[in-house]
Specification:
- With 175 residues, the protein is mostly helical.
- It has two domains: 84 residues, Rna Polymerase Sigma Factor, Chain: A (Orthogonal Bundle); 64 residues, Winged helix-like DNA-binding domain superfamily/Winged helix DNA-binding domain (Arc Repressor Mutant, subunit A, Orthogonal Bundle).
- The protein is built from eight helices and no strands.
- Helix 6 crosses helix 8.
- The longest helix is centred in the N-terminal third of the chain and has 36 residues.
- The N and C termini lie far apart (83 Å).
- About 5% of the residues have low confidence.
């Protein structure tokens, strides 16, 4: 009888811990999941699964030092699993099934630069954008590789590439 009282007390403590975590972090977890998934229903389900997994961990006797970090770690893993479930179709597979992509002259989203024009326009960019754009799109280097070559952080490189693309779009519109 004493063991059942201890187990009951532990379950109540775990319930209180999880309720407090839900009150404190559910809104942020939902926002984060929606930002990553862009589907309200799936993101809400992933957050609920996060709390279910956390409950299971606590019931098995797991100890959580930093609840917020633990919840976001679980949620990140669930988001990765969700991305893995979502299969993409290749253009070859679609064409085998009879899909024929057609270009429309009137579609404003069909403005695609050909490779030579893009390379010429990249040469018109300021030096700091031109170098990273050439490394990324001509030499096809990853952000990590560019970071190692330039000695700048991957985040800095990503920002420069983004800004370079914005400037490239402006150049294209003017041409």
């Amino acid at each position: 009888m004493y063991m059942s009282q201890i187990k009951e007390k532990k379950n109540k403590e775990n319930k209180d811990i999880l309720n407090q975590a839900h009150q404190n972090f559910s809104k942020g977890l939902n926002s984060y999941a929606y930002f990553k998934i862009h589907n309200r229903t799936i993101s809400t389900d992933l957050v609920q699964d996060t709390f279910i997994k956390t409950w299971s961990y606590l019931v098995r006797g797991g100890k959580i030092d930093i609840m917020k970090a633990f919840l976001y770690h679980i949620l990140n893993n669930l988001i990765v699993d969700q991305y893995r479930k979502h299969k993409t179709l290749s253009l070859d597979d679609l064409m085998e099934k009879g899909f024929e992509p057609k270009a429309s002259e009137f579609d404003p989203n069909f403005d695609i630069l050909d490779g030579k024009t893009a390379q010429l326009m990249i040469k018109c960019l300021p030096d700091k954008y031109r170098k990273v754009m050439l490394m990324r799109y001509v030499q096809e280097l990853t952000l990590k590789e560019i970071s190692l070559i330039t000695g700048k952080s991957k985040n800095n490189i990503a920002v420069q590439i983004h800004r370079g693309l914005e400037k490239l779009k402006l150049l294209y519109r003017r041409a």
